[in-house]
Amino acid sequence: MPLTVFPTATPRPQAESAAVRVLALWELWLVIAAHSGVVGAWRLAGVCWAARQGVKEWLRTLPGVVVCGGFTGLGALTSEVWRLDLGKLRWERLPGLTAGRERNACCAVRRGIAVLGGRVEGQAENEQTASVETSGHGWLSGSVGNIFKILPPLSCGPIVNSAAVVIDENESDQGQVLLIGGLDEGLSSSAVRKVDLATGECTAQPFLICPQDHLIIDCMAGRLPDGRIICAGTTQSISDTFTDEESSEEEEPERHAMAQVMESPPHESPSGASWQWRSLPGGSKVRIGGMGCVLSDGRFAVFGGADASGHISSSCEALTLSAEGARWDGLAPMHEPRIAFACAAIGECVIIAGGEGSKTAEVYEEGLGRWRRLPCSLPYDSQLYAMGSAVM
Known about the structure:
mainly beta; four-stranded antiparallel sheet; 36% strand
């Protein structure tokens, strides 16, 4: 049936009228794709030519999953940086880090990527670094000077396995980041620090809550839509920490799942200076080396990791934090058990890639609550793990 686009008495050539009609359909499919989420948009791309064009245009507006560094199957650290293009479903090589690095904190800051701490090439396995590097503006566009550069080191000293959350502010030339937990001088830490990337200055923040005679040995963190910071992880008794090497294989260390939220106290000013941590119920299991992110509906989801006995899991669950309280609900398990992998939430889905012993990728579709395998494994022979990851 003919489609009237312009109310005019002058007939337009058939070719021009058809072009206008295709453009209108293309724009319509773009809107539909934007309301379907990433996985839904991929499905729509097979409907027709106009749908495919609309979907591609919408996917181009989305950020991608960036992985920085990590430990490869060749037994070496890598400095490579890769980005998953959601429209092409292909990993694309980006300018690399200044040195190979693993177990580093990583987050997107001011249209660039900040990489903090970890272990770098040339260090012993149990050593860590205080070095910081960042990509500049225009990093993804391939502009001149589009490389990582070294920033002042962390004033708090070397740190590894920290979680990083970016802070909204305008006080720093390079931006500010919260570093949460990690190993500080070889010991598990519950410290939280605000880092000024321009100077490396680390300002102490309220410590994570930790039971007496325990240490926080692993944590993952994210920022909720209302600005609060959520942290989930694992605590271990101090006595077990210092006797693990002497323990028999039958003895398992005393480990517990923990969760907490950083927020302003009731009836107090919402300024960051007054914020404190509040304990929440821990998840159903310990997840050492697991990953977490904030879902599109505001829940904090955690994935995989190793339990107290060292068994690597594919299970997942999400924390709902509301006025009625906090509760954990199970999510569908991943296709593969994973530990120390990349994790990112984009467009109503979660994309996960790699992990020790793996280079595959899969996506969790929030709307349908199920996982799908992706046809775009990481570009390594056998595995990539302990890498930094961010959305950019």
